[in-house]
Amino acid sequence: MKAKATAALLPLLLAAPCIAQAPDAPTVTVPSETVPGVPAAVVPSSPADMPTLPQSGKPTTPQVRSKFSVLMDAESGQIIWARNPDVRRSIASTTKILTAILLIERGHDYDIVTAPPEVKGIPDSSLHLVPGETIPLRDMLYALLLRSANDTAVAGADYIAGSIPAFADLMNQKAAEIGTKNSHFVTPNGLYDPNHYSTAADMGLIARYAVTHLPEFNEIVKTQTYTVARSINRRDAVVKNTATTYLKRFPGADGIKTGYIRQAGHCFVGSATRKDWRLIAVVLNSGSCREDAESLLNYGFANFVRVPAVYQGDVVGTASVESGSAPVNVIAAQNLSIVTSRFRAMPAIQKRFIPSAVLPPAPVAAGTKVGTVQVLINGKVVASEDAVTASQVALRPALVWMRKGRAAGITFTYWLGGLCGAVALFALAKGIYARTFTKSHGGSRDRLAAEVRGVDND
């Protein structure tokens, strides 16, 4: 009943543009572009069908000093507000979000990490690790994300990849998988390197991946203090979150990471959740980064609303897999929402199914990913989700018989070959035996004949 009621209200809720452009926000982007040549189903059929959502009060604007900032919906990755989101910047210790992703995905909580020689002399902040000191990976993650310990990032890189350059390769691979477009990573801790950079939009995507895929990451970044287990220097074991003020004072605050080096300025990736809706704010190079992030998050919650666009299980298209008995319905793997303004009218929403470049051959199980479902506004992709098969796809009947015949033929050939081999082996053995028997008996007859004739047989 609840889902039906929400669906009935959808035309009323879809009342304003999903991307707000404040007077001081000249640049706005969305996660990806329209794919040419792919038809899209428009819902509803005309912008005129969408009345303005009644809303008391007036829209507000965020007060942001940073020139490089983004406000993003954590569920869909939709950018709600942005200023210079794709400008490459040094990002300081916000780098450690990506480092933590790799440590969590490639390591195990209670693996014991040994500090390599490279931890010696790394500038603060640090856990003051001593080469050879051991620490559980889980505790090292707390030191990495709460105290922002630069030496733990180096220890983690050595533990995962054997060296910092090898770990940096993994960072760049993972960032590309997440969908970043303007990032390159050289260090695991964000200490300055001219070839180490990212953008507000890319850092939003990396943070979104961490909070939507890794429960352990969420648990750590909302923690205010933690006592680390370590083998040396045990008096320096309590780590405090560098974002404690934000976590204590801002309603709904639940992470994520601060950062500072001189070349990057103060940076902050912050998130907050209210009424089960999580937003992510990225602020780079700001003297008031926490205040900027709080202003962005308050702006998002006050001026926008999350609207269901696709429900889990909705049919979004059909797909024909290789050798399949028939086309199969394709459904959304999860609910998919968009974010829209509470105050202004908006054009129509479009939904479309994009098949994967390579589809799996039949037989295919139900729930197999075969593409993505996208939601577009003004021709721009604002949200996407996996699209999966609604049911099993059986092999085409003729191919089933062919495969059975091929299997039977292979079995018959195998046994025939075995039989022929056995016959050949028997014939060979028989021939060898016959020759040996004949030779031995022939020799006896020759000797007997020689003795009768009185001839020396030597």
Can you offer a commentary on this structure?
The structure is a single chain. The chain is α+β, with helices and mostly antiparallel strands and 458 residues long. The protein has three domains: 2-63 and 307-389, no CATH class; 90-284, Beta-lactamase, CATH 3.40.710; 397-458. Helix content is 35%, strand content 22%. The chain is built from ten helices and 17 strands. It has helices at 2-13, 96-106, 137-147, 150-161, 164-178, 200-213, 215-221, 244-249, 289-303, 397-453; strands spanning 41-43, 68-73, 79-83, 112-114, 134-136, 225-227, 238-240, 253-261, 265-274, 277-284, 304-310, 315-319, 328-332, 336-341, 349-355, 369-377, 380-389. It has a six-stranded antiparallel sheet, with no helix packed on it. The chain has a five-stranded antiparallel sheet with strand order 3-2-10-9-8, with helices on both faces. A hairpin with an 8-residue loop joins β12 (315-319) and β13. It is flat. Residues 1-54 and 452-458 have low confidence and may be disordered.
The CATH superfamily of the largest domain is identified as DD-peptidase/beta-lactamase superfamily
- Could you say what the CATH architecture of the largest domain is? 3-Layer(aba) Sandwich
- Gyration radius (Cα, Å) is 34 Å
Low-confidence stretches: 1-54, 452-458
Roughly what fraction of the amino acids lie in strands?
15-25%
Write the H/E string, N to C: HEEEHEEHHHHHEEHEEEHEEEEEEEH
Strand line-up across the major sheet: 1-15-16-17-13-12
The largest sheet, given as strand count, sense and whether it forms a barrel, is: 6 strands, antiparallel
Spatial gap, N to C terminus: 111 Å
SS elements, strand count: 17
CATH class of the largest domain: Alpha Beta
Helical residue percent band = 25-40%
Number of helical segments with 4 or more residues: 10
Question: Which structural class do the helices and strands define?
Answer: alpha+beta
The coarse overall form would be: flat
* Total discrete domains: 3
